[in-house]
Amino acid sequence: xxxxxxxxxxxxxxxxxxxxxxxxxxxxxxxxxxxxxxxxxxxxxxxxxxxxxxxxxxxxxxxxxxxxxxxxxxxxxxxxxxxxxxxxxxxxxxxxxxxxxxxxxxxxxxxxxxxxxxxxxxxxxxxxxxxxxxxxxxxxxxxxxxxxxxxxxxxxxxxxxxxxxxxxxxxxxxxxxxxxxxxxxxxxxxxxxxx
Length: 195
Known about the structure:
single chain
């Protein structure tokens, strides 16, 4: 045993005498490339995510929106976006709720994804991987609402009163077109008896 220690002594001595060298340039380049790819992929995913939210808001009529579709892109502003994303989730939920109510559509989610979005952000900050699950869930919900609004519009149910404000009933009753009354009314008219 003593012989083995004596033979191992010079080996350990050589290890101690070696000075650490700087990082390998090839390794550093590989690390920077990996980080660059991750950052680019994250930005692309974020763009697609925000584009989905923006398109969903665009399907809501302007009078039902609590946020314009272009305001979604404010989430790209550093530090401000961390707060604005919560406002985005709340306002998208309110806009969808207004639109579904006006179109007389039903949803299985009463808060229209608001809680899922908030959980996504909170869990992303606290414990990242679990937040990713809620990120995917929120994206799928918003995509589903967008598709439901599009299909409802194609079926002709864009709103309770139609697309135009002019199609809404007025206080005095239904809307009348003067030209249509003369051409389409084929009923016999009674003459008033003159006294």
